[in-house]
Amino acid sequence: MLKVASLSVRRGSKIPIFRLSILSVARTGALSLTGSPNSSQHRYSAGALSPGPPWLSVGHAVRFVSLPVSYSKEFEDSYSSDGPDWENFGTLSNEMASRRWFKKSSPYTRDLQHEEDAAAEQEVSELELEVVDKTLRTRRSRNTPYWYFLQCKKLIKEKKLQEALDMFSNDMLKGERLQPKEFNYSVLIGGCGRAGELKKAFKLYNDLKKRGMYASDATYTALFNACAEAPSKQAGCQQAMKLKEELRLKNFPLSTIMYHALLKSHAITNNLQACVHTLREMLQKGHAVTQETFHYLLMGCVSDKGIGFRLALQMWRQMLHSGITPDLQNYNLLLRAARDCGIGDPATATNILLRPDHNKRTKTKGGRGVINVDLLESQLFLQQDPNGGSQGKESTHLVPVRQTENVPLPVDPESEATAPSLLDLFEGKPCSVVSLGTVDAVSDRLALIGGVGGFLEKLEEKKLGPDLRTLTLLADTMEPSHQALQLLLKSAKQHRVKLDCAFFNTVIRNMARRSSLEDAKAVLAVMRERNVSVNTQTFGSLALACFKQEEGLQLLKDMQEVGLKPNIFVFSALIGRATKRLDYVYLKTLLKKMQDLSVWPNEVIIKNLEFAAQYPPNYDKFKSRDRYLLHIDAFRGYYQEWLTYMPSMMAKEEKLESKTAVLTPVVADGLTEAERKQRAAARRFKSRHGGKKCLNAPAL
C-alpha cells in the first residue's frame, strides 16, 4: 500500500486527490488509481490501460509534490487526450480495500495521541460545565433590581421591614449577585425611617456610598424623615445636622421636598429655632412657601408644651399675612396646640397677639405678603424670666386695643357660635378681645379660637369639611356638654364622617374627667344607636368617673359580662380615683381584684399606693380622729403583704410561661407587649425598693 497524499497547487488551484493501491503483480497484475476532485469523483481503471504513465511503475515509491499551475494543466491535458477511459479507472479499489487513510504510527506517537485526546476531552468538559453554569445562573437571574424594588416596597407597605431587608441582602446581593440601584436603597431607607430605625437607615446610606453610587433627592428625604422618626430625639437632631452639613460641603442643592423633610426633623425634635433658620434659607434659595411648609412649622410649635399654643397662633397669623390659605391639616394642628400646649404668660401673649400693627398685611406684586423672618424670630423666641414673663418691657403692662375692660371668655356651649375668636382678629375682622386672662383649661384655649361652633363655622367659611381627626380633637378640647356633642354629631352627619369607637371614647373620657359618671354613661346610648361596639378603652375612660367602691365594682362586673378582661389601665384609673379620696377599703378591694385576675401593677399604680400608704405630716391618731385615715393601718399591713406576694406570683407565672414556651414555642403567652412592659416595670420598682421598707413612714 502507498501512503495517500494530496496535491496542492499554488495560487489557489487544485488537482484531483488520488488514492493509490499497488497490488502484487503476481496476484492481480493490475494497478488501481482513484481520483476525487472538488466537484465530482473520478474513478480510473487500469484494465484498458496498456502501458501506464511512465512514472507509475510497480515496485517504485510514489512521491507527490506541489506542482505549478502550468504543469498541472499539462498533466491533465496529456492524460485526457492520450490516455484511455479515465472515468472507469480504478473501480476495483472499492472492492479490494475499505481503508481510505494510511498513516505510519509508533507506540510513542499513539501515547501522545491519547494524551492529546484526553486533554481535548478535558477542555471540552470544562467548557460544557462553564456553559451549563452560565445557563443556570442566567435562569436564576431572571429578577431585576427594579423587581426587588417592587417586592421590598410591597413588604414595607405590609409592615414587614425585616423581611424586606433580608430579601435585599440575602436574595439580591448574595443569591443572585445583582448590582443594586439607588432606588433599592431609597425604598429601604424610607421603610427604616418610618419604623424609627435610624441606625439601619444610615447603615444603608453608608453602604450606598461605599459602592460608589450617588444618592438622589428621594434618598436624602428618606434620611431626614428617619431623623424625624427616631426614638431618641437628640440622636435624630444630631444626625439631621450632620447630614445637612454634609450636603452643604457637597454643594448639593436641596429641593422643596428635602427642605420640608428637614423642617419635619427639626419640628419633631423640638428645635423650632432651626425650623425658622430653615425657613429663611428656603426663602433665600427661592423656594415657594406653601401650606405644607407651615404645616411643619406648626408641628415645631406643638413640640413646646409650655408656650406652644401662643407660638402656633403667631405662626398662624404669619401664614395668613403671607396670603396662604390654611388647609385642614393646619386646622388640625392648631387644635393639637390648643389641647396639648399652654399659652405662657398672659401679659406677654396679650402684647404679642393683640398688637394692632401686626394686623396689617403688606402685599407684593404677586399678591402674597412678605414674610419678615427676623421679626417672626424675635417674637417667637422671647427670653423668659423665672417667673414666667419676658425680660422686655412688654411684660410689664397690658395694651388695650378697642376697649378698656376685659371681656370674659364664654363657656356656655349655646353662645359658642358668637364667641370672639383670635382667628377673626388675624383676618382683619372686628373682634372684642382686649386682653387675655388666665387660660389654663383646654376649653379656654379652644374658646380663644371660636369654640366648637365657631371653629366649625370657620371650616365652612373656608369650604373645608372636618374629618374624623378634626372631630376627635374637638371632642377632646371642648367643654363637656350634650349640646357640644350634638354639634359634633350634626357636623359628622353633614360631612358623612363615620364616627368610630375612639371618638366616643374621647367624649366619654372628657365627660368623666369634668362631669359625672351618669353623663359619661349617657354616651353609651349614643354608641348603641350608631352600632358602635365598646372596647376595653371605653371602660378605661368610664373608670375615670368611678370615685366610689360600688361604681368601680359595677364597672368591673360590666366588663366581664361583655367578655372583656380588665387591664392595667382600668385598674390604674380606679386606683387613682380611690387614692384621691383616701378610700382604703376601696383600695384594698381593688388590690384583691388585681390579685384574683392576675393583673400586674405598673409604676403608676405603685406610686399611687405609696402615696396612699403614707401618714400625713404631723398626724397623731391618739389626739384626733380622721375618718379618711381610720383604716390606714389595716391597709398598710395588707399592702406590705401584697407587695411580697405579687413578685412571687410573677416569678411563678414567668417560670410556667417559659416552660410552656419551650414545649410549644408557637403558642403565645396571652399577654400583650404593654402587659409585659408593665410586669417589667413592677419588677424594677420592687428591685429598687426591695432592700428597704416600701412605706416611707413607720407604722404607729
Shape: extended
Count structural domains: 5
- Radius of gyration equals 48 Å
The tally of helices reads: 30
Unreliable stretches covering 5 or more consecutive residues: 1-75, 361-367, 383-418, 655-670, 691-700
In which range does the helix fraction lie? 55-70%
Structure summary, number of beta strands: 4
Averaged pLDDT, please?
Answer: 74
Tell me the fraction of residues in β-strands, as a range: under 5%
**C-alpha end-to-end distance:** 135 Å
Sequence of strands across the biggest β-sheet: 1-2-3-4
Largest sheet: 4 strands, mixed
By helix and strand content, what is the structural category? Answer: mainly alpha
What report would you give on this structure?
By secondary structure, the chain is mainly α. The chain has five domains: 87 residues, no CATH class; 125 residues, Serine Threonine Protein Phosphatase 5, Tetratricopeptide repeat (Alpha Horseshoe), CATH 1.25.40; 170 residues, no CATH class; 81 residues, no CATH class; 141 residues. The protein has 30 helices and four strands. It has a four-stranded mixed beta sheet, with no helix packed on it. A hairpin with an 8-residue loop joins β1 and β2. α10 packs parallel to α12, α20 runs antiparallel to α21 and α26 runs parallel beside α28. The radius of gyration is 48 Å and the shape is extended. The N terminus and C terminus are likely disordered. One of its GO terms (biological process) is tRNA 3'-end processing. InterPro entries: PPR_rpt (IPR002885), TPR-like_helical_dom_sf (IPR011990). It comes from Austrofundulus limnaeus. It holds the Pfam family PPR_3.
